[in-house]
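Cross-check.
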Amino acid sequence: MDLFNTGTESHQHSKKILDLLHDHDDFMDSIKRVLDVGCGDGHDIIWWADAETRDDVPERHNYTCIALDKNIKRYNGNKHKPKNVIAVEADLMTYSLSRPVDLIWCHNTLQYTESPAAALRRFNQFLIPGGVLLLSVPQTVNIEYSRWSSNCYSGQPASFTISNLIYMLACAGFDCKDGLFNKEADSPWLNAMVYKSEHNPVISTETSWYDLMANKLLPDSADKAVNRFGYLPQNELITRWIDQDIILWDRV
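Predicted model, tokenized:
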């Protein structure tokens, strides 16, 4: 079960983040190669392909864009296919890039992977040092009408909360200390913007919270919580998001 009925509906959701990024000129100028994992109909990768500067006379960034999907027919059915998009039909875990990318865009896809932890490690391999991963995945445990709700859909074997997402990202070698995280109230979506760690630690899902702390991969609030409890309670997290003030996770 997908939370969106159409690719257009999915893009309406993802465009909220894309529009925030577009306002950051230095960030947009730093990108050359973009990989969209699970591109679907292609609305998001086309946004990247058509992205322009905010100058008085806008110019196309003209990124090299790679649209990756197990069923590329969905993208090929899109009437608008920019020339700077390379469409690839392949499985994430067997696909090989000829050269790394600066940014991976993964919206509404991670929950469909057989092993999200392995997928995140694969993302790390695809990125240049300091490359960025932008990720949106639905939280599966929520409070609905003042009652706990936990749902499991076909084809979605894993369960996501912000705490275990940070753990998986850090174990995959992503710098969550300077990472940005967001979950809007009354929305199931977890959003993360993290960078590939420059020192590229060798880490696995058997790594302890203390080892992640030693590698400086966790947010400062997570460091404090782990030192206190030995694990990461969500309500101890304090994180930031793009152009937004501090988020206290026990309020969402």
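Residues 7-22 form the longest helix (16 residues). The first strand starts at residue 33 and ends at 37. Passed to J.P. for a second look.
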